[in-house]
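Ticket #4471: structure export looks truncated?
Reporter: QA, pipeline team
Priority: medium

Steps to reproduce: submit the single chain below to the structure queue and open the exported record.
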Amino acid sequence: MFFIVLAAVAGATTWWQRGAGVFGDTLQQALGLLLWISPVLVGALLVSAYVQRLVPRATMEHWLGGRSGLRGLTVATIAGAMTPGGPFTAFPLVVGLHRAGASTEVCVAYLTAWSVLGLNRVLVWELPFLGVDFVALRLLVSLPLPFLAGFATRLIIRWVRP
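Actual output as written to the record:
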């Protein structure tokens, strides 16, 4: 509700300060973005829901649960690095994984890998602009980050909930 109210206030302010033409153009751009993002978001939400139903909880807990340790962090890091798209794809998937039995530390490692190691972004943006040497070095120093984030999450959870 907060964002709906914020959007209404921003729209009214745009209309008042810039006029109906600018308001209409802005609304048209926003609706175009919504139409572009909606199929991806709907697909990610469906995958999230299907993961919860298709993967048995025992299997999810074995591979990505609280006792999966380094195995779970490794799987999450690989999956996060391979997940294409923006937050509208990654976050629904993490919600689905978490609800299906993946531990919080695994979900943090997944999101960290998605944001730091995203192979899709590396191939499309980084390599053409920055070159192989720079990208290889960046990936090398970034590779431990999902594991560190996962281990740190585990320590914080143990500290907060003894």
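Status: closed, not a bug. The export was complete when the record was re-opened. Leaving a note from the reviewer for reference: The longest helix spans residues 20-54.
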